Amino acid sequence: MSDGLPEGFFAQIGYLLQNYGTNYLKGAGITIVIAVICTAIGCVIGLGCGIVQTIPVEKRDGMGKKVLLGAARAVLRVYVEVFRGTPMILQAVLIFYGAAFLFGWNLDMWTAALVIVSVNTGAYMAESVRGGILSIPVGQTEGAKAIGLTHVQTMTSIILPQALRNIMPQIGNNLIINIKDTSVLFIIGVAELFSIHKGVVGATYAYFPSAVIEMAIYLVMTLVCSAILRWVEKRMDGESSYALVKQTGGLNAPPYVEHGKPRTGNLDL
């Protein structure tokens, strides 16, 4: 046991908070910043991958489009399967050390950390976006084509807004996962929360009390982020009340709007 570390569990908790509390908070700050930034970048990567994977191929399309799209989908499939099928800690080792060994790219640990977590998140989000797009009834796409919208207009104006709402829980889930999985970045020297815990344990040998403090901090971060994400989802759902419009005095008359309660009877149009 380290000199100066008191006896008793709660006494040791107090000692660690008093002497290393600032370090824990700095580690938590780095963890949450990396998680939020990389989740946002991963969503953009996943959005691009999901859109490419759902681009329709029709018989009248040229051979060039079919070959190019097929090759792109094959590359994306390999990317998704590799990064979803291997541990992030090994991905961190391969990207950070492999970039220097194979290509001579000496990435600093912060750049490597952002790349590692973002690319990993993008692989998971690619499948979420693809599923979100496919969850929209095909009749909406057919209706958009019927009124003359292009595929790009259909996606940006009709499909993606609904798909993004559908996958909001998965985006939140990935954020929570990233908050916890940044702990693997200690392998490349990033001073995130788990790395701080290792440093405190090395200095005090108070492994269990430090682990309890670390777990509590992770729990607070995930609970706060979950609450914020639920609020965002609720805001995206819009108001739960409705407005019933009754038009009187002809089509040019201003509408009569009643909020919050149903009206019975026929509407005068």
TrEMBL record:
PROSITE patterns: ABC_TM1
Main location class: membrane
InterPro entries: AA_ABC_transptr_permease_3TM (IPR010065), ArtM/GltK/GlnP/TcyL/YhdX-like (IPR043429), MetI-like (IPR000515), MetI-like_sf (IPR035906)
Membrane association type: Multi-pass membrane protein
Pfam families: BPD_transp_1
Places the protein is found: Cell membrane
Residue ranges of domain ABC transmembrane type-1 in the record: 28-229
Spans traversing the lipid bilayer: 30-57, 78-103, 109-126, 184-205, 211-232
Entry annotated with the keyword Membrane: yes
UniProt xrefs under Gene3D superfamilies: MetI-like (1.10.3720.10)
Family matches, as NCBIfam families: HEQRo_perm_3TM (TIGR01726)
Protein name from the UniProt record: Amino acid ABC transporter permease
Organism of provenance: Allofournierella massiliensis
